[in-house]
Structures are given as structure tokens and as C-alpha cells.
Amino acid sequence: ADGIILGPVSHNDYPPADKGGLNPSGQLRKRLDLYANIRPARSRPGFPPRCGKPLDLVVVRENTEGFYS
To answer: If DSSP states are collapsed to H, E and C, what string results for the chain?
Structure first.
């Protein structure tokens, strides 16, 4: 495939690893050595911003500890 789009998944929907289950989200992060979860957010034209003024924001969350490690 030239590309893959993977939406949000629940790790509770997969069998535990000791029973052969694989979490696609976790496996992709480990195999591709992805260390950050990047979430852009921007106000949309034609919709009044809910925070008072237009927003253009990028949130970067490190995925190197906890569940994702």
C-alpha cells in the first residue's frame, strides 16, 4: 500500500498479548519508532470560534511512557 489511514482504536477490543492479540496502534508506533502524537487544531471559516478568537494550535504529546511504551 502507498499509505494507510488508521483511526482511533480501543485497546480493549483486542485480545491480550499473551493470548496472541496485537493492538494495531501500539504495533505501528513501535515498528515505525513514532515518539509523538501530533494533534493540530484550527478554527474553521464560517463557524464562530468557541474560545473567543480564531485558533491555530498544534499539540505534541510524547508517547514514550505508560501504555504506549
So the answer is: CCCCCCCCCCHHHCCCHHHCCCCHHHHHHHHCCCCEEEEEEECCCCCCCCCCCCCEEEEEEECCCHHHC
